[in-house]
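WARN  no MSA supplied for this record, continuing single-sequence
INFO  ligand: adenosine-5'-triphosphate
INFO  echoing inputs
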Amino acid sequence: MSFTTEQHEREYLEEIKEKLVFAIQRVDDRIKQFSTELRQNKEYIHEHQSGLDEADMVAAGQSIDRMAFTGESAVARKRKLMKLRESPYFGRIDFEADGGGEKTEVYIGIYTFFDETARTNLIYDWRAPISAMFYDFELGDASYTTPARTVKGEIVLKRQYKIAQGRMEFMIENAVNIHDDILQKELSKSSDDKMKNIVATIQRDQNAVIRNETAPVMIIQGVAGSGKTSIALHRIAFLLYRFRESIASKDILILSPNKVFADYISNVLPELGEEQIPEMEMEELAMEVLENKYRFQNFFQQVAALLEHHDEAFIARVRAKSSFEFLRRLNQYLIHVENNYFDPTELHLAGVVIPFPFIMERFKSYHRIPMLKRFPEVIQDIQQYIRNQTKRKLSGQEKARLWEAVPRMLKFSNVLDLYKDFFTWSGQPELFKRTSHGDLEYADVFPLIYFKIRLEGAQTYDHVKHLLVDEMQDYTPVQYAVLSRLFKCKKTILGDVSQQVNPYSASDAEGIEQVFPQADIVKLFRSYRSTFEITTFAQRLFFNPNLIAMERHGAPPTVTGFGSNAEEIEAIKKMVKQFEQSGFKSLGVICKTRQQAEFVYREVKAHGIHLLTPDSTHFKEGIIITTAHLAKGLEFDEVIVPFASARNYQTEIDKRMLYIACTRAMHQLTLTYATERSVFID
Ligand SMILES: Nc1ncnc2c1ncn2[C@@H]1O[C@H](COP(=O)(O)OP(=O)(O)OP(=O)(O)O)[C@@H](O)[C@H]1O
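INFO  complex generated
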């Protein structure tokens, strides 16, 4: 790149920064003006309170609310401008539309910056239609689509910039495939904080997912570190921008695996200028739909039970309830119930005989209403039948008799009883068992909810306009059937089938597609998180022939054996100390079980080390000791996996945990064991 080009860009950056400073001043003045007016209005109301009638008070209140809202928007605008001043843009394309139009210089940043004096867009939001070309095309023919039309033309120049604290660190002229240099730089950085935005380096296939506006259900199946969660959050930011008239952050819901993960990703949308979206865990949803009427085991407890004891009967129960076949059987049984469990008898009331076929026919005619909710309709029809015969209204006592007789014609009155009956009907009563505490097993919770929805109905979540489901592999077809009935909105569902924490109960994209046949499936094979060496190591645990590892190199993972656990712990303590001097910012010590994590925590305990358990609600920076289950979705510069011994990692579920733990490492991975190493890393 010529010196003059770079010099020119640096000057242009200064020009833009000046304009930003000027814009910030103007917003500041407006904010001051709003707050003065607001104060004056409040004072006026206070002073004239006695002279104002109710209507005046309401009007004054509304005016204050309006002013406060406008003031808040100005404050938000100022925040965005301040951020832009630090890093105004990261890319530029010069585009010539076909038909001899003018060349447009499109500088792309995290937000729009519109120069009100010149009435031009100085910076385009990365989500603007024209900005899509930055991600989709290199130099040459290009096009972009607006809601109204497709514009074709040519990109004649393309540049990338790294601007931090208002200073241009470097710029790259893109004659060929651009993204790799800057992407490599971004990926090799240390990470000490929560998840970050990736707007400057979104890849083409990722961009297609982010900007997909049409899919009613979008399933993203991607290998570990392929950017699924990042993409899903950028997709939400995109949808909030594209459909800003009809969708706000509060209308989106993310079903997240746990509170730590929810906290870990909570920075991304605010960084992109959007508000955080509401979050819920599956268990919270279950509790809400079941109206807190049942006590049940949660998913963490189910997985812990599977890890701690190899109980064949328990595994069989979990496995049976996670198949698509199970959902099919539930549906078959519901048809059986519909056809056989309402058994009307002839009724004698008010001197009239109501024949049972009439009652049956009325009951069936309401097949669209859940069975347990049909009685009011059927009873009303019977009353009408009697009125037609007797030409009089029924007495209170007669009505009470009807209300007693009709519900009794149904062979059950309680959803849980019916759910238990399902197992008798299917000839497998042994598949229903409560935990040793008398709670429902986790595997029964969503089938029970499914029955509740079908038999009693349930509240729906119509206020949710987009549902995001992360870690899709951990949910069963029945869970998806429940989600499809509760949430009628569009959905983005993402996960990685190799990262199941419960191999007996997991879904892949094709399985989920059976519940959502209208879904678009996208598969991502390029892994960005880990060095080539770490990805290659993890591939030996679960080989995916389609996976593409980043050509980013680092130290090969090490596997170190010790004579005893005590020696192993001493070595881990040393590694933690070394980490503190290493220049890395985050370390995850990832164990198989909670007990092991607690043990390491007690042994290594030192200032600044955090233990994450299923009860934790926040992600912590620095050194974290936790389990593979909880570490899922997180990442660390360095990962230590203790107790990688033959005894500790021997079953299928153990292997999954090991895989999850290893794939959390970005730059360095160390496994330790005492006596004999696990066969999985042999
Ligand atoms: N286009 C990109 N530019 C820069 N960084 C990226 C890009 N795509 C992904 N990354 C980085 O790769 C890492 C993994 O991303 P993310 O956590 O979203 O992946 P994931 O597929 O959800 O991972 P996992 O399933 O293993 O938890 C993150 O550090 C993310 O910032």
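The chain has four domains: 1-186, 200-292+460-527, 343-409, 554-674.
INFO  checksum written, moving to next record
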